[in-house]
Write a structure and sequence with these properties.
By secondary structure, this protein is of the alpha+beta class. It has eight helices and eight strands. A three-stranded antiparallel β-sheet has the order 1-3-2. The protein has a three-stranded mixed β-sheet with strand order 4-5-6. A two-stranded antiparallel ribbon has the order 7-8. Strand 2 and strand 3 form a beta hairpin. The longest helix has 13 residues. This is AbiEi antitoxin C-terminal domain-containing protein.
Length: 185
Amino acid sequence: MTSEDVMRVGDLRAAGVPNHVIEARCRPGGRWQRVLPGVLLLSPDPPTDLQRWRAAQAYAGPGSVITGVAALRAQGVRGLPDSGRVHVLQPESQRLTGYDYVFLERTTRLPHPVHRHGLSLAPAPRAVLDAARREPNPLRLHHLLAAVVRAGLCTAQVLLTELDAGSRRGTAAPRATLRTLLPTT
């Protein structure tokens, strides 16, 4: 599978694919499918997680960064619950809104991305904290934070430092959970 399995309609048009060909291939039973506005999957099969992530990033546009559980899973963290949503950070100047399974968040603190599988991903500390801020269940929150620490992607102290650098919104529960993950002296 390549990153060419997901394409923006505009990119296909720019490559010389006529509108009538795109429309014909996207009809029911066709070889392609529309997965998000302006984004096609060049296959009739249901999209894989990786294809859904690529489609979300194509929809969000240049400069976007996938974060949260999707970013962690793309970086190899296993056993995390998947809500089916893809959380994507976009530069504050963009005004695109989320759609279907894509949750878009504008930020002034766009992280320097990690690149895997043709995707721009938030580094593990940022990705896990973006997910943790929105996790209402205390057990799932603990599992989420502990999974990243156990995987060796960062320490609880690094996560607390990252929390201090960002917005205070939604940080009380992650802070309390992280304190339980700090090594005892």
